[in-house]
Amino acid sequence: MIRTKLLRLSLGWRILLGLICGIILGVIFYKNTPFINFAQGIGTLFINMISMIVLPIVVSSLTVGIANIGDLKKLGRVGGKTLIYFELMSTVALILGLIVANLTDLGSLVNLHNLKATDISQYVATAKQTANHGIGDILLTIVPTNIFAALSSGDMLPIIFFSVFFGLGISAIGEPAKIVVDFLQAVAEVMFKVTGWVMQFAPFGVAGLIGVTVAQLGLASLKPLGLFILTAYMTMLIFIIVIMGIVAKLYRLNIFDILLVLKDELVLAFSTASSEVTLPRLIEKTQKMGVSKGVVSFVIPTGYTFNLDGSAIYQALAAIFLAQAYHIHLTLGQQLTLLFVLMVTSKGMAGVPGASFVVLLATISTIGVPASGLALIAGIDRLVDMGRTVVNVAGNALATLIIGKSENEFDATQHEKYIAEVKAK
């Protein structure tokens, strides 16, 4: 009877239930190594299952979408609009983070001696490997020498580059390549079906991932940095409701309608701290919201590399927070320099594992904060990451709708119909 009732719950409610169960188990089995290993295995299994289906969906959907666009000039226009929009929104997110950090002045309230340092050697190693990464390096590495190697490593930018050119080649050939389009379309539909099956395991994966976090950290360890966590979440909420809300309003969209449609995906993004797990369903839902396949297939995969508004907010907040904690007074000029450096490094290291931390490692030295300072907030990174992932996912969905409307690749009737269906459930 109970099992039947649980199965009748929507996926979003089941994921939320998994989140609650994971927190409870994490508290019960605090520092319990066997539980941590078991829960980590469950969580990793779920993430691996999602990773298994993401690339086939991206390649098939993007290639078919570009083939349907067909026009190189139009593709260039869509790409230009997308990147400009991403840059503007990321800059606004950084500025918001700097403003909130200055107004709250939380860092001055923190006693560094009460904070427990966390090992950040993995981030330092990554930072050294990517120390010279910039826009020029992205342009040099975006062209894959071996597409199969890029697929194997999950390097998104070269995959996007290849898929775009492959789609354009299909479009240029025309009728003889129709069989390829039909095949890739079938692949996409099959993978979306597989996504539905994989998502049934999501509540267990969520319980495992959040359980590991709570079991390792413990709730008591959050108190010294509780205000920073709260401020980060409040800032992200302001960005979604106010900033994204205003942008949506300018394009005659309702941010609350969008959030309602994506509620399951946002809960999943929050509990797993992974944008990747929502990508297949985000592609599916933005098409249901009225955006054409071509625009959706290009904007969303690109956004997962370049449109990281939540990460931008966190980076600005953390940089100023640490400067305040070390009693380093930053002038307006120094903060503007920090803003510029973050704008460059956040794009240059997009897609790098632990990108937010790597960006901070690459930038805090410019304001006099020692790299060891990051070890003091590394312990709560996972908890803040959950919030910034939600912002990233919501931002990519809004970007897709806006680019679709600007290109007249948006069906308003279908959008309103789908929103009404979701509200009626």
What does this 3D model show about the protein?
This protein is mostly helical. It has a single domain (10-70, 80-424), classed as Sodium:dicarboxylate symporter (Proton glutamate symport protein), CATH 1.10.3860. It is built from 20 helices and no strands. It has helices at 2-8, 11-28, 33-69, 72-104, 121-129, 135-141, 147-153, 156-173, 178-199, 202-217, 226-250, 255-261, 263-272, 279-288, 293-306, 309-325, 332-348, 355-363, 381-406, 412-424. The longest helix has 37 residues, at 33-69. The radius of gyration is 22 Å and the shape is globular. The model is unreliable at 122-131 (pLDDT under 50). It is a multi-pass membrane protein. This is Cation:dicarboxylase symporter family transporter. InterPro entries: Na-dicarboxylate_symporter (IPR001991), Na-dicarboxylate_symporter_CS (IPR018107), Na:dicarbo_symporter_sf (IPR036458).
Number of domains: 1
Low-confidence stretches: 122-131
Helix/strand-derived category reads mainly alpha
Largest sheet: number of strands, sense, barrel closure: none
| H/I helix tally | 20
State which percent range the strand residues make up: under 5%
CATH second-level architecture: Orthogonal Bundle
Quantity of strands, as a count: 0
**Intertermini distance:** 23 Å
Q: Could you please say which CATH topology applies here?
A: Proton glutamate symport protein
The H-and-E topology, N to C, reads as: HHHHHHHHHHHHHHHHHHHH
